[in-house]
Amino acid sequence: MKNKILLIIPLILILTGCVGVSSKGIFGTGVSVALDPRSLGTQIDDSIMQKNFSARIILLDKKYLLSVSSKVLDGRIFLTGKVDDPEEKLKLTKMAWETDGVRSVRNDIKVKEEFNFKQSAKDIFITSQLRTALILNKKIKATNYQIDTYKTKIYIYGIAISSEEKEEVIKEAKEISDVEDVIASILLVDNLRIQKN
Fold first, then answer.
1. Residue 67 covered by a domain
2. Is the residue at 47 inside a domain?
3. How confident is the model at residue 31 (pLDDT cuts 50, 70, 90)?
4. Is 130 within 8 Å of 172 (Cβ atoms)?
5. Does residue 162 fall inside a structural domain?
6. SS3 track for the chain
7. What tens digit of pLDDT does each residue of 163-182 get?
């Protein structure tokens, strides 16, 4: 009981923090409020869903804090990371669907295998190459994208201002050497429920 109280107190402090103070907090959206094409209300709703889901994951098992990451965009939850067995993957998917306000869930969580330093280093290198390419490309608003790489497959989540920007992001990802596949979950501003005016 004492451990639960000690876990809940910091969690409450984290969850009551100001929205938009930084571009990426502990459970932050990764996109600054000023540059985000979503309306402020949608950003707040997504942030609340993100924090709610993240808190429930931590309460389920603390190991998920480091092994699973989630992103909420326009009521859609995107999951990536690694778990020990398929039942955990299903449990997290179910938990995501039970989050208030969720419109859809995309689960790209993988079941863990033996750690491979060479593979992990390659994945980190691919991610950093793509992040750099997006930052240097003037046609792309790099802050609108989250990138995860697993076994040379790039997972891109974000919001594109136009279909041209979306295509440019995918093109940049495919140009990186040793990339096996690019899985893009990129929403267009025009497809958001409520857009910033």
1. no
2. no
3. very low
4. yes
5. yes
6. CHHHHHHHHHHHHHHCCCCCCCCCCCCCCCCCCCCCCECHHHHHHHHHHHHHHHHHHHHHCCCHHHHEEEEEECCEEEEEEEECCHHHHHHHHHHHHCCCCCCEEEEEEEECCCCCHHHHHHHHHHHHHHHHHHHHCCCCCHHHEEEEEECCEEEEEEEECCHHHHHHHHHHHHCCCCCCEEEEEEEEHHHCCCECC
7. 999 999 999 999 999 999 99
Asked if residues 172 and 152 have their Cβ atoms less than 8 Å apart, the reply is no
Residue 157 belongs to domain spanning: 117-191
CATH number of the domain at 150, please.
3.30.1340
Of the two residues 61 and 17, the one the predictor is more confident about is 61
Stated pTM of the model:
0.60
